[in-house]
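Lab notebook, bench 4. Continuing the backlog of folding jobs that were queued last week. Each job is logged with the same field layout so the records can be merged later without manual cleanup. Today's entry covers LysE type translocator, a 91-residue chain. Filled in by technician R.K.

JOB TYPE: sequence-to-structure
TARGET: LysE type translocator
LENGTH: 91
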Amino acid sequence: MTGLLITLGDQKAVLFYLGFLPGFLNLSSLSAMDIAMVAAITVMAVGGVKLAYAYAASKAGQMCVGNSGRALNTLAACILFMAGGWIIIRV
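JOB STATUS: finished
OUTPUT FIELD FOLLOWS
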């Protein structure tokens, strides 16, 4: 349910569905069952991807504990610093 609420709160996703679905579905001829089916498929597809992201983030968080986590954070900070510097130099 949380994934659905996060997705519904994502304006880019809402605009995508508002622009995408009318091209493939005649919205004026949809029945309640059709709407429920489209909603269920959307929730399963988007929710499944978001669950996979959450699982991967959880596993990554478990791996980044202790000295290895500190080293990874330092490396990430250096990369972000260099990327920011590169952007400043190019602009």
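OBSERVATION: The helical segments are 2-9, 11-24, 32-63, 67-90.
SIGNED: R.K.
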